[in-house]
Every structure is written in C-alpha cells, then in structure tokens.
Write a structure and sequence with these properties.
This protein is globular. The chain is of the alpha+beta class.
Length: about 140
C-alpha cells in the first residue's frame, strides 16, 4: 500500500511539473510573438484629429493616440514615451495630424503603427523606410 501511495504522489508531482513547464513555455511564446510587426504592404497615409493621447506611466512603454477621421476612430501607436519626451514633441486633443503607418491586426482589433507623424510644421520620424524603429529600447 505504501508503494502505491508513493507512486500516486510521484505521478501528481510529475504531472504538476509538466503542466507548469507547458504553461511557462506558452507564456514565453506569446510574449515573443505578442508585439505587432510593421508591415510595409499595409502602409497607408491618413489625416485626422487627435481625440485622446495615451501616455503610459512607464517611459519605456508605447505611447499612442486615438485619432478620428471621416471613417471612424483608431489607435495610432507611436513609440516609447521617452522618445517623444527626448524629441520635445507634444500632442493634445484637437491637434490635426497627418501620418504614414502600417495597419496591423492585434488580437481581435486593428491598430496603426506610425512610421511618420506630421503636426503643423513638425515631422516626427519614428521608423525607417523598412519599418524598423529609429528609437533605442535602452532608454
């Protein structure tokens, strides 16, 4: 009887360890593929009005704008907050912006990853022609 209980205990410990390993591996895969990638084939140029500026509390997180145009409102993802601060650019509700960006799917929704944003006479370059970020993630 003692050997039988020991075998059951070992089975549950092993099963629990395998379950934890599978969970951690799945989480790692999601983390690595979770960030949307710039896709030049979906690049578009649009104009709109800033409805809301979403500045994250952490300087390394991505800031984005809710922009409204004649077709609706959408998320325009910019760059880390620290890069905007370094460039001295500000956005406010009501600002008119023109931008070039890539429409990408993220989960069930869609967003636009900005490559270039023009506000008045200021042009903020966020990505090169291939869509690679021009900011440093080391900030």
């Amino acid at each position: 009887m003692r050997r039988h209980i020991s075998s059951i205990t070992h089975f549950y410990r092993t099963s629990f360890s395998v379950a934890i390993a599978v969970f951690l591996l799945a989480a790692l895969c999601v983390a690595q593929t979770g960030a949307p990638k710039y896709d030049s084939s979906t690049e578009t140029k649009l104009k709109g009005t800033v409805e809301e500026l979403k500045m994250p509390p952490n300087a390394k997180e991505i800031a984005h704008l809710l922009v409204k145009d004649s077709t609706g409102t959408f998320d325009l993802y910019l760059c880390p907050k620290s890069f905007i601060d370094d460039m001295g650019v500000t956005f406010a509700k009501g600002d008119e912006v023109a931008f070039t960006g890539s429409k990408v799917k993220q989960g069930a929704g869609e967003m636009i990853l900005a490559r270039e944003v023009v506000k008045g006479t200021d042009t903020l370059i966020l990505r090169d022609d291939k869509g690679n970020p021009v900011w440093s993630w080391k900030h």
